[in-house]
Amino acid sequence: MAGNVIELGDAEFKREVLESSEPVLVDFTATWCPPCRVIAPVIESLASEYKGRMKMAKLNVDDHPVTPEQYGIRAMPTLLFFKDGKVVKQIVGAVAKAKLDEAVRQVL
């Protein structure tokens, strides 16, 4: 995923997500996960559309296991929406762009 989606690790999570001045969508993903590959271009598209209003990020759960464990992530993809450092919405599984777009607008 190139472009507007930030690749996070456990080390950057606090700064990029919890301390962010704008809402953040975090895609908890894995390279072996087919639904993750399906939703990745959708998130990239929304990242372009909402640039400057909502930050979009992804975190590979295999490479960075600490953060997913802290948030009880058990299925991929899991999308957590953060606002003011707190989880305000969660979506589990690959969903249609319209549903994801609606969730982004609700968080904004």
Tell me what the structure shows.
This is Thioredoxin. Belongs to the thioredoxin family. Keywords: Disulfide bond, Electron transport, Redox-active center, Transport. Residues 1-108 form the Thioredoxin domain. This protein is of the alpha/beta class and 108 residues long. Helix content is 38%, strand content 27%. The protein has four helices and five strands; from the N terminus they run βαβαβαββα. Strands 1-3-2-4-5 form a five-stranded mixed beta sheet, with helices on both faces. α2 links the parallel β2 and β3. The chain is globular and about 30 Å long. It starts with a strand and ends with a helix.
The proportion of residues in beta strands is 25-35%
The dominant shape is globular
Unreliable stretches: none
Question: In order across it, which strands form the biggest sheet?
Answer: 1-3-2-4-5
Structural class: alpha/beta
Number of strands: 5
What's the helix-strand series?
EHEHEHEEH
DSSP helical segment count:
4
Span from first to last CA? 23 Å
Using only C-alpha atoms, the radius of gyration works out to: 12 Å
Assign a percent range to the helix content.
Answer: 25-40%
Largest sheet: 5 strands, mixed
SSE layout:
Layout: E1 5-8, H1 10-18, E2 24-29, H2 34-49, E3 55-60, H3 66-70, E4 78-83, E5 86-92, H4 97-107
